[in-house]
Amino acid sequence: MAEPKKLMRALAGETLETPPVWMMRQAGRYLPEYRATRAQAGDFLSLCYNPELAAEVTLQPIRRYNFDAAILFADILLLPQALGADLWFVTGEGPRLSTVTSASDFAKLKGADDIHDRLGPIYETVGILSKELPSETTLIGFAGAPWTVATYMIAGKGTPDQAPAHKLKAEDTKTFDALMDLLTAGTIEYLSKQADAGAEVLKLFDSWAGSLSGDDFDKYALTPAKRIIAELKSRHPDVPIIAFPREAGEKYIGFAKETGADCVALDNSVQADWAAGYVQRDGCVQGNLAPTHMVEGGQPLIDETKRIVKAFSGGPHIFNLGHGITPEADPENVHVMLEAIRG
Ligand SMILES: Cc1c2[nH]c(c1CCC(=O)O)Cc1[nH]c(c(CCC(=O)O)c1C)Cc1[nH]c(c(CCC(=O)O)c1C)Cc1[nH]c(c(C)c1CCC(=O)O)C2
């Protein structure tokens, strides 16, 4: 039997001498080779739907940095598109979608089982990667969590405060709940097919979980994650799941236990020492270097990286950033970070 991969060992609860490491958005615009392949594909969405080129950009950061994990190159907004929403990206601004703000908009969407034709190329990318990745590298598949995906579908774009989604939730709870149920079911089908195609770990991105307070957090972040994880665990018992309820603050405590996640990813607004005490006691944590360090570099990057490694050294830990690496980051700083972790 082959040695278990480092990332899988951490996810199984093992405390390792040096943590495995990867970065959110590791395939992205800070890399010149990514920009070249994206130009070859034409645009971002054409790149997502081209299995050869999507696999190529997934592999680029692995070749450059030998990360312990590769994350499938795709986007959380491909699921709404497969459900029938229009989706396009405006350069310099971000995603745009046709909106869902009424029962009649909702009625036009497809069912959770009707997504696979459209998402076929994504499963093909996973298949290529599971053959081409180095044997020690773990392949991570992912989807957005229902609340985060719903915020984009309702507003038709990214919003600073998710106000349109909060408004629909308050004023037409029936339609909002129906959308959440459809996204929960669709996410299960989407992630399950990624696992069938060869994804070894699945990650659920709830980037806007922090804007849900009180009971809303339980109803719309915790409960859907619990449903998704329970169903995936019954279909794929050996596939660990990482949950990322970004900016959950105190609600990170107990999140893994409540939802059945094998690991929680921490954003950089929480202190590593605090999280080591209150969150890591339940199992593996991932995070949580501020992405700005990858732009600024220097001694603060080295000091902060070492501080995080040390804070989490008493338990299972996957080193990562607290959010995605930005286009302004210096690719050389990734080597500086890796040297500080791996020595
Ligand atoms: C909210 C969200 C989205 N997408 C995603 C999230 C959740 C994580 C987070 O909070 O960032 C997740 C995502 N998006 C992308 C990945 C691929 C894997 C990876 O390397 O992490 C992953 C895991 C590629 C991408 N997704 C996007 C890019 C940049 C597109 C480009 O090349 O022009 C990449 C590499 C575009 C995107 N996609 C999305 C937005 C808001 C934007 C525009 C903002 C931006 O440009 O960074 C939706």
UniProtKB/TrEMBL annotation:
InterPro entries: UROD/MetE-like_sf (IPR038071), Uroporphyrinogen_deCO2ase_HemE (IPR006361), Uroporphyrinogen_deCOase (IPR000257). The record marks 75 as: Transition state stabilizer. SUPFAM superfamilies: UROD/MetE-like. PANTHER family: METHYLTETRAHYDROFOLATE:HOMOCYSTEINE METHYLTRANSFERASE RELATED, UROPORPHYRINOGEN DECARBOXYLASE. It catalyses: uroporphyrinogen III + 4 H(+) = coproporphyrinogen III + 4 CO2. Pfam families: URO-D. Transmembrane segments: none annotated. Homodimer. NCBIfam families: hemE (TIGR01464). Belongs to the uroporphyrinogen decarboxylase family. Pathway: Porphyrin-containing compound metabolism; protoporphyrin-IX biosynthesis; coproporphyrinogen-III from 5-aminolevulinate: step 4/4. Catalyzes the decarboxylation of four acetate groups of uroporphyrinogen-III to yield coproporphyrinogen-III. GO terms for biological process: protoporphyrinogen IX biosynthetic process from glutamate. Its EC number is 4.1.1.37. Keywords: Cytoplasm, Decarboxylase, Lyase, Porphyrin biosynthesis. It is found in: Cytoplasm. This is Uroporphyrinogen decarboxylase. Its main location: cytoplasm.
